[in-house]
Amino acid sequence: MKILLSVLIVLSQIKFFAQTDSVKVTEDRPDAIYPTYNDFRRNNFIGKDQLITDFKKDQLDFMSKVMSPEKISYNSPGGVVTLQTKDVWGYYQNKTLYVNYKGEFFRVPVFGAICYLVATVSVINSGFYDPTYSYGVNGNRTKEIREFMVDFYDGFIIDFTMEKAEAMLARDPALFAEYKGLNRRNRKEQVNRYIRRFNEAHPVYFLKY
């Protein structure tokens, strides 16, 4: 009886701290800019009303237009601040997250604990990435569409591979066991569906502090 009581107390404390230290991320999020990943995790954003721009703020693609120039300026309690657009981590527009990959912003169609996106990357003819984007050394570089993932809890963009996707899914043992019960072909075809199911089972939270 004492053991059961102790367990209940611990569980209630975990629930209490989860409620007080974080807030669940919902679809009802304002259009906003997140300068860094830490700002994103804490939901510290630059709102529309702070931005200094000639673009009309009632346009549906307002945020994309603001993020197209090399710099953005906004009003803060300490005065006007200017940022290099290429250094901004990401932004929300029309309830959709866009993240920065090599200076360009790409839509995240699957958002959650495991985010999924596609991005246009520079590729050498041999098929390897050119992480430096250093055109002119070997020439004949092309643009290709590649798949990526983002772990909500670290903010890093990584290549989408079956191995990496499965490593993330493995954090839910029951769901992962069901997934691994599929044959190899079905696992490949249904991995995105299982990522969505993982996200449904594990809602994400912004930190309050």
Descriptors for this entry?
209 residues; alpha+beta; five-stranded antiparallel β-sheet; 6 helices; disordered N terminus
DSSP helical segment count: 6
Give the overall shape, derived from the CA principal axes.
globular
How much of the polypeptide forms β-strand, as a percent range? 25-35%
Instruction: Write out the strand line-up for the largest beta sheet, numbering strands in chain order.
Output: 3-2-6-7-8
pLDDT under 50 segments (min length 5)? 1-19
Written as H for each helix and E for each strand, in order along the chain, the element string is: HEEHEHEEEEEEEEHHHE
Give a count of the beta strands, DSSP E runs of length 2 or more: 12
Mean pLDDT: 86
**Main pleated sheet:** 5 strands, antiparallel
Question: How far do the termini sit from each other?
Answer: 36 Å
Helix content: 25-40%
